[in-house]
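Repro:
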Amino acid sequence: MKPAMFNGTTIPVLEQVVNFAQARHGVLAGNIANVDVPGYKTQDLSQDLFQERLKDAVDQRNTPGGTRSPGDLTGNGYDEFNQAKDSFRSVLYHDQSDVGIEKQVTEMAKNQAMHNLALTIMTSQFRLLQTAISERVV
């Protein structure tokens, strides 16, 4: 359960980006592990589907005049980010033409960069909140 103070920040969105990147990293690592298996079809998680569902969740959260308060993201069992989490289960199977290790390593490096960026921004958000709570001057 997330404290309500995080709901006005980008932290819930960044959390979903980190979770997606971690799930995708596992799928890509599996592709690399099976690169020499005859007939193996590479798998991936749909970045487009994830981004679309995450955008919808953010739009839903930011819709004025909604039936819930801004601090009600996790209260009453409501979590608009469930749609984004559901996209983690949407595994894409590709034809056998893209099993190359170079492509998989490139995708893994891009995925790691997205993961690291989200963590860096999240860490910055936590530092800002910590500074605000402790009333220290940065």
